[in-house]
Every structure is written in C-alpha cells, then in structure tokens.
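Quick one, T. Sequence first:
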Amino acid sequence: MKNVVFVCTGNTCRSPMAEGYLKSKKQTGYQIISRGLAADGSPAANNSVNVMLEAGIDITGHKSKQMNYSDAEKADVIVCMSASHADTLEALGIDKLKCYVLGIPDPFGGDINTYRACRDNIFEAVDELIEDGIL
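Structure tokens:
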C-alpha cells in the first residue's frame, strides 16, 4: 500500500482537487489523503467543487484537515503544492526525500477560470508523477 498525502495551505483548494483526482483514477494499492498547513475544518472552496464537478469528480464532502506529524510519518509520498509547503515540513523534521513539489499557485480568491487552470495544472502534474513512477 502506497500512502500519499497532498499538502497545501488551507486544504480547501489545491490539495483536495489533487486528492479527488488521484482517487478518481481508482488505482489499487493507494491510501490517499490531503492536508493543509493552516486548515480549520472548512469545506472545499465552492470554485474547487465546481471545477471538479465539471471533470466528473465530486469533492463536495471534503472538510479541511490539519497536517500532523503522524500523517507525514505514515506517508510514502508527500506531494506539496508549493516549495514553501515542503520547506515548512522539512523545518518540522519531515524527511525531504518524501516530498515532491508541484509548484502550483494558490487559486484562493480567484474566479472560476483561475480554478479551472489550477485544476488542469494539478491533473497534468499528478499524471506526470504517475508516469514517473512516483505515484
């Protein structure tokens, strides 16, 4: 079983979209979660939900969850949306060799087209990680 954690800031936009996308691929042998470094239990952002529904993926039930040390320790792969997320995890003692950075800007506060572009970038980046054997 490969444990994958997607990480962003609030766990309401990027990481839930990435989690939903990888889960939609229905590949066996994965435990997939998403977390935030500043999560507060909020639902996924409306625009995140809407653009994922456009792609046939339902993340309406998502509630943001705070990243914790146990999540990081159990993870085989930690996919960070930005370098700052990876830097924060490394500063907390998380093995940087587990971390992969996608470099996807935060769409928070943007319009629906900003979220569509973010979604498309996430899908492409996750597909690349799969093709490279990381996921």
